[in-house]
Amino acid sequence: MTTTTTSATPASTRDRAPRGPGRAGLPAAVPGLASALVWGAGQLINRQAGKAAFFFAGFAGTIVWEIASGNYYAGMDFTARANGGFFIRGLWGLATLGTQPREMTLTGLTEGDNSIVLMANGLIALLTLALLAVLWGWSVRDAVRYRAALNAGGAAETSRAYFRRLWEGSFAYIVLSPGMVLLVFMAVLPVLFGILVAFTNYNRDNLPPKNLVDWVGFDNFATIFAVPSWTETFGGILGWTVVWAVLATVTTYAAGMLQAVLLASPKVKFPRMWRSVFLLPWAVPAIVSALVFRSMFNGQFGPVSQWLVDLGITDERVYWFTDPSHPNLARAVALLVNLWLGFPFFMALVGGVLANIPESYYEAARIDGAGPVQQFRHITLPIVQRTVMPLLVLSFVHNFNNFGVIYFLTEGGPDNVDYRFAGSTDLLVTWLFKLTLDNRLYNIGAVMSLVVFVIVGAISVLNLNRTKAIREL
Known about the structure:
It is found in: Cell membrane. Helices cover about 70% and strands about 0% of the residues. It is mostly helical. Helix 4 runs antiparallel to helix 7 (about 115-150), helix 10 crosses helix 11 and helix 19 (about 430-440) runs antiparallel to helix 20 (about 440-465). The protein is flat, with a radius of gyration of 33 Å.
């Protein structure tokens, strides 16, 4: 009689091993297809009940959410508008923007569709579905990869071990995921909403809920770039915006560097006191400073115009911000005020860079016979530019969209008869503000926001990619 000795298999190993005839050779596509149809079904086939429960909870929660927020038991006559839940009605509203406007009857206004609310709800539903699609894709991918690993002779793994490994290996992503979800709804959602408004007829002549908003395709873009009055306004404002951004950046950078170099000189006494004094314009809120300068340069009551008359420089008061025949006066004052507000930032920035330049560089230059100008040109300037170039690009972007200085100082004035809803000092961002808030041309304002985004984004990416400090990251 032959006695066969069978080695004992640990209970944990027996629980993890695939059971049933033919399970080890099951094609990987089978659990993947099962999870694609019902989340977690593939994990159940793979004998991972914990993972199956996790994915199925997301699947069941989505269905329950849709059914509970809808009206699926109202009858056989089902419509997305009347019976759909959060997802079905949301996608319907995003596609149609409503079908029934509010009407005045003897009993009051009827209950109709608000196209803008439907658009917002539709975007929320769409983004939520996108996040759920990530969970669905995770379920399918996990089922396929795990089955393929088993078929290749890999060891089985319990759900608990999988989640433990996931926690240890992807801890950073798990912690960051709530912030990413919040970012989707707080940042991506408004951007997508603004993009969609650019393709509608949402304006002061077509306001919901009394009127329905319709999709109009690229008609708004054709209005901006084909109608002469709009094209002239856009071209003029765009040209001034670029000039403003360049001059505002260059002047503040040059003045800040000059102040930093002077304060770094050993001949200047009490440099900390001077540095504190020159930082005051940056410490005072920009809006407050802009309003103060606006009062000082007021053409009728401001002291600047009165001083010019008293000194005999001008025969009459100068209307800095309201003279349509001399728009460059307002532009020059705006640049001067922006210089006053912006140079302390670059002074502090460049001052910090100068403090970290080794003195041995200058000693070697002096030994070689280099003077102060040559030292500045070949040592100070290259080191400073390499360090601050990314911030120069960001400063250009900030000045391109510098709403506060222009709006609170000049309000876009003086008036320009050739422009539509804009003045001679308006930037694209202040013109956008007037189009939306003052004139309720939301569709045209959305088009302008897209144009600003494309221009600023292209300039920023191009310059940052060419910056050595960014390439070395």
